[in-house]
Amino acid sequence: MPDQRPNIVLLCGEDTGLHLGCYGHGCATTPNLDRLAGEGARYTNAFSCAPVCAPSRSSLVTGRYPWSIGTHHMRSVLRRPPRLFTQELRDAGYRVAWPTKTDFNFEPPGGFADTTEDWIGEALSGKPQGPFFGFMNFDITHESGVWDVPNWLADDFASRTAGLPDALRHDPARVDVPAYLPDNEVTRRDLARYFDCLALQDIRVGRVLEAIDRSPMAENTVVIYLADHGRGLPREKRWVYDAGVHLPLIVRWPGRIEPGAVCDALVSWVDVPATMLSLAGVGVPGDYDGRVFLGDDRAAPREYVFAGRDRMDCAFDRVRAVRSGRYLYVRNFWPDLPYAQCQPYMEQEPTLAEMRRLHAAGELDGPAALFMAERKPVEELYDCEADRDNVHNLADDPAHGAALAEHRAALDRHLDEAGDLGAVPERELVRRGLVTDYAETEHRPRLAALPEAVRVGAFRALLTEEEARAYVDSLPTPTLHHAAVTYRTPTAPPNV
Questions:
Q1: What is the domain range of residue 197?
Q2: Boundary residue ending a domain (297, 321, 341)
Q3: Is 489 buried (19+), middle (13-18) or exposed (0-12) by CB count in 10 A?
Q4: What is the CATH number of the domain that holds 460?
Q5: What are the tens digits of pLDDT across the range 123-149?
Q6: What pLDDT, in 10s, does the model give residues 300-345?
Q7: Catalytic residues
Q8: Distances (CA, A) of 230 to 50, 87, 407, 457
């Protein structure tokens, strides 16, 4: 009897927020993803664990929170990663193809896939005969796509979008500008370019979907589309606000998911591996942090999802967040470190450069000025139903005191249960042999300083916790020392 287990295809967009037509975004040109949503289910409350690629993707392949296993710092190397869900699939007889990005903050172990070659031709030919898993990444929407200079990932914007028809190009005058960005020519140009790249991503997704639909595997294939984190703009990518971690999730499963379904349940990217294994009839490892959100073994809905931000390349920080269906609570463990520390890669963003220029000239005001504050609040609370841009902090509003206490407690419980390694200095993690000394060897030589006129915070980015503490100690009135801190810091496990 033929194996009836479903094939699974996981499609991942880079730096792609909730800007698809099927999510009600009028600027988007995404007919293929909109069609996919019409043929399956669109999840409205899906969240990444981290607002930047490698930590986020580590949770997608391990089923573990980044801060639980040591992949929480952006651009670090975990020395002994846990088994990947693809290894569980292979052990169960699935053929695994992973031809694109393996940016997990560790080297994928040998045997994590059967092939790293393109699997489209294989699907069209009717092979493999047994159950199949295929991954595909779409990098056209990466933040560097809007730059005018070539970079490590791709050509400049003009070159990489040369094949896009004029009819699919977006008018800067017609894009929506979120409240936390300045509404001017520079920002609008970057946003229009993002939507141009998103249109190209949709075309490429469409080609993959066409290949699946023309193949013998079409009727028995689960297709999952998601993104690694939010759009590559200030206060989006690298930050735990909704714009950084609230993301698209579309699932098509012929005969099992009603076309056009909409699901409002909270889903975390840490849930995706457990769910794929469950759909494949494979036992979910006991150490997974995620829960199954689809199929016969679906777990009870989540009350909360969690996200975190730690060192971003050259810039140290530690932020944790909890999101319920309505509220986002953010805890800044280092409130004296500004949002806009110098981070050389991020500094290539034209919108960020424009924000620095306007701030230095005293012309940046309103919510757009939030990102240039010298310090962060200790706690932030946002009503995401009333304030989709997360710009009105309600943490000091007595009317929302109960919500603040609830989410504060939920985060405390989670960090205790997860064992937050963000509470351990990176140098100590190196000493324990958990991670390699990537910060000192790779990031230290790249530290740079901004011109004093546009600088916010320290002379240059603070690479380590030790440097951050010295900087805070040098301030006349450091928040960490004088504020009435209303939360505790859970202790990370001592012997990881």
A1: 7-297
A2: 297
A3: middle
A4: 3.30.1120.10
A5: 888 777 789 999 999 999 999 988 887
A6: 999 999 999 999 999 999 999 999 999 999 999 999 999 999 999 9
A7: 53
A8: 10, 28, 23, 25
